[in-house]
UniProtKB/TrEMBL annotation:
InterPro entries xrefs: OPT, YSL-like
Protein name (Swiss-Prot/TrEMBL): Metal-nicotianamine transporter YSL7
Subcellular location: Membrane
Transmembrane segments: 45-67, 73-92, 113-135, 159-180, 224-249, 269-294, 392-416, 422-440, 447-466, 472-493, 514-535, 571-588, 608-630
Any one Gene Ontology cellular component term annotated for this protein: membrane
Keyword presence, Transmembrane helix: yes
Native organism: Deinandra increscens subsp. villosa
Family according to the record: Belongs to the YSL (TC 2.A.67.2) family.
Amino acid sequence: MDRSSSRRDHDSESDGKRIKDAVGEMETIERIFESKEVPPWQKQLTVRAFVVSFILGILFTFIVMKLNLTTGIIPSLNVSAGLLGFFFVKTWTKFLNKSGLLKQPFTRQENTVIQTCVVATSGIAFSGGFGSYLFGMSEVIAKQSNEDNASENIKNPSLGWLIGFLFVVSFLGLFSVVPLRKIMIIDFKLIYPSGTATAHLINSFHTPQGAKLAKRQVRTLGKFFTFSFLWGLFQWFFTAGEGCGFSSFPSLGLKAYEHKFYFDFSATYVGVGMICPYLINVSLLVGAIISWGLMWPLIELRKGDWYPADLGPGSLHGIQGYRVFIGIAMILGDGLYNFFKVLGHTFTGLYRQVKNKNPQNQIPVSRNSSPDLASLNFDDQRRTQLFLKDQIPMWIAITGYLSIAALSIFTLPHIFHQLKRYHIAVIYLLAPTLAFCNAYGCGLTDWSLASTYGKLAIFIIGAWAGGDHGGVLAGLAACGVMMNIVSTASDLMQDFKTGYMTLASPRSMFVSQMIGTGMGCVISPCVFWLFYNAFNNFGVPGSTYPAPYALIYRNMAILGVEGFAAFPKHCLALCYAFFGIAIVINGIRDLVGKEKAKFIPIPMAMAIPFYIGGYFAIDMCVGSLILFVWSKVNKPKAAAFGPAVASGLICGDGIWTLPSSILALVGVRPPICMKFLSRSANVKVDQFLSS
């Protein structure tokens, strides 16, 4: 579930509920901070804030990269970023205060700057496409696809062009929505649930009660971080060969293990399961049972009839083709349904907003226009006054967009010669409208459709370029351009909402997002390069880092260019069926209402195990079970500390990848291989060794 649709959306809703349960909804929060002076926007941007952001940005980039390259499921890390940012700077200022060197106290505005910068930095690990469209261009993935004209559609990763590509495409979305910040936040009063939940979290940290709770949460996070890191170290000693170690433990039996059903002792995915809503985890398990428990075993019985019996397990003309293409069909069905649903909400909401404005009260777009402050409560009055105080000049937005667009149109064809300048120009003409739609829809529903817009670009530009002119690579590159624009646009608007509610200046939010994006454009490629060079069989199914979405995105590009000729027998009919099933399930979920929809699985989540397997779904369901039992025993404590425990498990295991990568690069191998054999296989091994 690439950081598209379901990932951020469902997780942020869960974050918001837990935060509100833990610290309470304070309707007059600004009364508590009334006596505290709000620093000017320049003083919100401190050196210590960006030092902490840089350190946390590296940590979270490792986490997001690992998740991206294993399953593609990335939970919301806003709580972890806000909590760790508060802890680091609070510790820093406490030390300086004792030594008498503290010049500026730690404020919630500075905390917001850190959180914004960290999320912007680690966000590039997703929108940069290292587990999807960018790595999908590589020879490793192309060999698994078996498409025509493969040589014209291959571009292997290189640190230089990766960094250059990200720098020319990642900033455009920021400038595209800057002029709309006042309309979205103040005039339309869009909720932006993720941004609102993060603001409540940061505000709570800086109240006396919230600070005490935050300290306890940080201690809890630290304990489980240490446990998770040491558990990763312990497991490493038993992974001397392929299929060795606890991650290959056939906990449900060898037959179940062959069909990808086992608990692999991953602290990361247990933690992810604790953060993700129960419905996501159950949907993953249902999808795993339908695919690996029923469909693939039945299709494998047709070997020699539906597909040639002599094909390897990785061939897309065999069983692998059913796994990949049926999964893609469900993802596209779910994505297109939600695309039109959110688009409908967007235009309906816009129509109502415009209709409700009388001629004397038009939507204020100019710099000097302001709403009727007397009609607002104290919190909104103070927030609106400060939000309108530091405006970002329109000329900066227009000049920035046009300058970066011109640079990008000139530069990108030198990186991807298959992508022509007129392809890029058309994307940039449409981009502001699509960025607005995504940002507005995200404000209403918290659903970011960045990957859906990217997939549309794959099909349109890929088909336009044509199969004989590198259409697959052109489509993948266009996907990257589009995804970066619409993703960063909605992210920035979420940050503006967080800043509005914490009295952080729009200027400091924009600068923080720019700096975070710039750091991400360097950090993410370097982290990916470390993974790429350190681990054997990188990107190969069954390996430690299979990068499943890379193959999925490449095959979408192939579909856009070549059509359905490469499908195995009956695969197209099954794709149509599951495409329709995804739409029907989503329709039923919307018809029955929110309460009953909690018991109907989500098609996007169901589709992920179709290709990967069910092992990670079992891990995540274990995480859900832990949280469920904890909630039954002590609900307030589970609500307050559950996210901290989950974050500790994710962060500890995620940061272990850094020393494990370094060990692999310098040639240090684990000393033991722990492997599990059936009784008959074990007898044969014993006989061989004794002979």
